[in-house]
Design a protein that fits this description.
Helix content is about 35%, strand content about 45%. It contains four helices and six strands; from the N terminus they run ααββαββββα.
Length: about 120
């Protein structure tokens, strides 16, 4: 059975490749994502809405896991990321995802990052 970190690393490889169908395959059909703001997203269809605009607006993404605390099917993964816009400008930001896995997929994800950091990126362009 894959560890939460292994699942997250595979998921982030797909997200960095901007491959939404493969990103969604990493989510359990009954998964719930708790974004840093707004209501929870339940199921793959709602979860997809979390990614569509970002993938359209930022063709580049790099993510590195810089710290992990975990046990069994749960982990806290601190990450550093860089979004790259269409002009090639790099926009770094960081956060933590608390993940719970089931059947080799993400079952629950709580994403903690400063939404203002993304809003600042959007306003700077």
């Amino acid at each position: 059975m894959k560890t939460p970190r292994e699942i997250a690393e595979s998921y982030w490889r797909a997200e960095c490749a901007r491959d939404l169908p493969t990103v969604l395959e990493h989510y359990h059909p009954e998964a719930v994502v708790y974004p840093p703001s707004g209501p929870p997203l339940r199921g793959r269809e709602q979860i997809a809405t979390f990614y569509v605009d970002e993938m359209r607006d930022y063709p580049g993404l790099e993510v590195d896991i810089v710290h992990e605390i975990g046990s069994g099917d749960e982990a806290a993964l601190e990450w550093e990321a860089v979004l790259t816009d269409h002009e090639g400008v790099r926009h770094p930001f960081r956060g933590v995802n608390i993940v719970r896995t089931s059947e080799g997929m993400l079952k629950a994800v709580r994403a903690y990052f400063d939404p203002a950091a993304i809003e600042q990126i959007d306003q700077s362009g």
